[in-house]
Design a protein that fits this description.
Layout lengths: L29 H6 L5 H18 L15
């Protein structure tokens, strides 16, 4: 059974927070954003797994809405 490719967490709100170094939309670091297209599926899932902790550290202002179709569960 083929699994669909892992979706990008991009929300279209692309601005890097100076203090955290994370995008305020998707919570990725700039190196993760730049390398996303070349990441393996495992790398993409690893980044997704980091996002809830980053959201918690940065506060509730960094919540994605609506959820991205194809996001790992």
């Amino acid at each position: 059974m083929n699994t669909p490719p892992t979706a990008s967490p991009c929300t279209g709100v692309c601005r890097i927070d100076d203090q955290s170094g994370c995008c305020i939309g998707c919570l990725r670091k700039i190196d993760e954003i730049v390398a996303w297209a070349s990441y393996s599926e495992a790398d993409k899932r690893r980044v997704w797994a980091l996002l809830p902790q980053r959201r918690e550290q940065l506060g509730s202002n960094h919540q994605r809405f609506p959820p991205v179709k194809g996001a790992p569960s």
